[in-house]
Specification:
Helix content is 28%, strand content 22%. The chain has helices spanning 2-17, 63-66, 141-151, 182-186, 221-227, 234-244, 247-259, 321-328, 330-349, 352-363, 366-369, 378-404; strands at 48-54, 72-79, 86-96, 109-112, 127-131, 159-166, 169-177, 194-198, 212-215, 274-278, 284-288, 413-414, 418-419, 424-426, 428-429, 438-445, 448-449, 457-459, 468-476, 483-486, 490-492. By secondary structure, it is an alpha+beta fold. Helix 1 (2-17) crosses helix 12, helix 8 crosses helix 9 and helix 9 crosses helix 12 (378-404). The longest helix has 27 residues, at 378-404. The strands form 5 sheets. It has a 7-stranded mixed beta barrel. The radius of gyration is 26 Å and the shape is elongated.
C-alpha cells in the first residue's frame, strides 16, 4: 500500500512539475513549421477552408461514388485562413482514403491536384490528405502526436486543419495532413529511392508481399534484402541492422510509438499505419502515420516497454519483428529504452501539453463546432483533450517503473589503448540516462584495485612496462542488483 501511495505521489509530482504548463502572457498566433511556401497550410492555428465540387458533366460526389480505388474528377477552391479570396483548381482527383474509416458518413479524402492536369499544384504541393478525425474524439491526437515525432527529429508529416465542404454540403473540421510525397521527403532525407506503405498487418519479414510501393520504381530488392534480417539473431542481427538502417532513428520512432501507445502503428498490435523509406544507399527509415488512435485511455491499448503486450487482434503478433529482435539482444533493447527516456524529455522540453492546449483553444470555438459531423458531443471532446495531460504523465511513469525493476544498463566507455608514466589517462563515459542511477569508478592494475584511484582520470607513475590498467565501473540504483563491468585494457608502455 505504501508503494502504491508513493507511486501516486510521484505521478502527481510529475504531472505538476514535468508536464504542467503555464499560460503565456501573449497569445500565440502561429505554430507554422518550415519556410517553404506550403508551410502555411499546416499551421494548426490557421484553419483553411476547402470546397470540393463535382466537375462539369461528372457525377455528384456522393460517398458511394468516391468509395473507389480510382480518383474522381472534381474542382476545388482553397481559402486561406481569414480570407474571402480563394484559389480555384479545375479537374483535380478525389477519392476516399483509409480502410475502416471508409464506412463513415464524414468522409476522409485524398486529393491529387495533378491527377488529370500534369504539373498542377498549390503552393508547390500536389497532394492533400484530409482526415475526418471521426475516430479521434479529441480532434487533437494527430497534431499533438506528430509534433512529438518531428520534435524528436523523426521524419513525420506536418498537420493543420481545414473546414471542408463537398458539393455544397459542409462536412465539418478536418485534419489537413501533409502527404508522404517527394516534397515532404526532401525536407527530411538527402535522397529517396523507395517508399512503401504498410497496411494492416504488415511487418518487415521475409516473403511478406503486403507492402505497397508508394514512391519509386517497381524493383523491391531493397525491401527484400532488408526483410532477410529477420533470419538473424543476437549480435549478428544487431550488426546488420545498424548497417542497413538509420538504426537510431528507427529505434526512436518505435520508442515514440510505445510512449504514445500507438497500437495502430508499426510496433503495435495491428502492424498498421507506417511507411518504410529507403535512401540511395539502401538504408531504411520508418515514417509514422495514422495517429488518431494514440493517447488511448483503455489499459489494454497502452503499450508495454517489454515484450509482454497481449494481442486482441486475431491476425496480429505481440510486437514488430524489429522490437522482438531488439528485445532479445540487450545492447539494442537498452538503446530502445534510452530513446524512450529521450522522448519523454522531448515531450517535457517542448511543453507538448501547452502545444496541445493552444490548439484546443482554437478549434474548440463555436465557429469550428457548428454543423460538425462529429461522433461525440463537445463535452466529450474537451474531456478527451484533457486526458492527454494525464496520459503523458502516466506514460513517463510507466517507463520509469519498468526501468526501476531492471539492473542499470551498461554505459559506453572509451579509453586510450596505451599510456606511459608521467601521463594522465582519462576514460570517457556515456552520460547516465536512467533515472536514479549512481556511478562509481575503480582503476585496476593487473586486475587488482589501485588504492584511491576512483576517478575517471588516472595519473600514471611508477608503473612497469607491460602493466595492464582497466577501469571498473559500477552502476547502482535502489532495489536492484548493481551492474559491474570493465573497460578494455590500457597497456603501460
Amino acid at each position: 500500500m505504501r508503494m502504491r501511495a508513493k507511486s501516486f505521489a510521484v505521478v502527481i509530482a510529475l504531472f505538476l512539475g514535468v508536464f504542467g504548463s503555464v499560460p503565456s502572457a501573449t497569445a500565440t498566433v502561429s505554430l507554422q513549421e518550415g519556410t517553404d511556401k506550403a508551410a502555411v497550410l499546416f499551421d494548426p492555428l490557421k484553419v483553411i477552408t476547402i470546397k470540393i465540387d463535382h466537375a462539369l458533366g461528372e457525377p455528384v460526389l456522393t460517398h458511394k461514388y468516391l468509395d473507389s480505388p480510382v480518383f474522381r474528377k472534381a474542382n476545388i477552391r482553397i481559402y486561406m485562413a481569414g480570407s474571402k479570396k480563394y484559389v480555384a483548381l479545375a479537374n483535380v482527383g478525389v477519392r476516399l482514403k483509409g480502410s475502416y474509416t471508409r464506412k463513415f458518413e464524414k468522409m476522409s479524402l485524398k486529393v491529387n491536384l495533378d491527377e488529370f492536369v500534369p504539373g498542377q499544384n498549390f503552393l508547390g504541393i500536389t497532394r492533400l490528405t484530409l482526415n475526418a478525425m471521426y475516430q479521434d474524439w479529441s480532434l487533437v491526437h494527430e497534431v499533438t502526436g506528430y509534433k512529438l515525432f518531428r520534435s524528436a527529429g523523426i521524419p513525420a508529416p506536418r498537420a493543420g486543419y481545414a473546414k471542408v465542404s463537398v458539393d455544397g454540403r459542409y462536412m465539418g473540421l478536418y485534419l489537413n495532413l501533409e502527404s508522404i510525397d517527394s516534397d515532404m521527403l526532401k525536407r527530411w532525407f538527402k535522397s529517396t529511392k523507395h517508399v512503401y506503405s504498410g497496411p494492416r498487418p504488415c511487418d518487415l519479414t521475409p516473403y511478406n508481399q503486403c507492402y505497397q510501393p508508394s514512391l519509386g520504381d517497381t524493383n523491391r530488392a531493397d525491401l527484400v534484402q532488408f526483410t532477410k534480417l529477420d533470419n538473424l539473431h543476437g549480435s549478428q542481427w544487431w550488426t546488420e541492422f545498424k548497417k542497413r538502417s538509420n538504426s537510431e532513428l528507427v529505434l526512436r520512432m518505435i520508442a515514440t510509438e510505445i510512449f504514445l501507445s500507438h497500437w495502430d502503428g508499426y510496433n503495435g498490435y495491428s502492424k498498421n499505419n507506417h511507411f518504410v523509406h529507403f535512401d540511395n544507399k539502401n538504408r531504411m527509415t520508418l515514417i509514422p502515420w495514422g495517429l488518431d488512435q494514440t493517447f488511448p485511455a483503455e489499459p489494454k491499448k497502452q503499450m508495454a516497454w517489454g515484450n509482454s503486450d497481449q494481442s486482441y487482434f486475431r491476425d496480429s503478433t505481440t510486437k514488430s519483428t524489429i522490437h522482438q529482435h531488439c528485445f532479445e539482444y540487450a545492447p539494442c533493447f537498452n538503446e530502445l529504452l534510452h530513446q524512450g527516456i529521450l522522448i519523454s524529455k522531448v515531450a517535457r522540453d517542448i511543453d507538448l501539453v501547452g502545444y496541445k492546449n493552444q490548439i484546443s483553444e482554437k478549434i474548440n470555438r463555436s465557429q469550428f463546432r457548428r454543423n460538425n459531423m462529429s461522433a461525440v458531443d463537445f463535452k466529450t471532446q474537451k474531456r478527451k483533450q484533457a486526458w492527454i495531460d494525464e496520459f503523458l504523465v502516466l506514460r513517463t511513469q510507466a517507463l520509469r517503473d519498468f526501468l526501476a525493476a531492471r539492473k542499470p544498463a551498461p554505459l559506453g566507455v572509451t579509453t586510450p589503448k596505451k599510456g606511459k608514466n608521467g601521463e594522465t589517462i582519462t576514460a570517457t563515459l556515456q552520460p547516465a540516462w536512467e533515472p536514479g542511477v549512481r556511478v562509481r569508478f575503480q582503476w585496476l592494475l593487473n586486475g587488482e584495485p589501485i588504492s584511491g584511484a576512483t576517478n575517471p582520470a588516472l595519473k600514471l607513475k611508477n608503473f612497469k612496462p607491460g602493466d595492464k590498467l582497466k577501469l571498473e565501473i559500477t552502476l547502482s540504483k535502489n532495489g536492484v542488483l548493481d551492474t559491474v563491468y570493465r573497460s578494455k585494457s590500457i597497456k603501460v608502455s
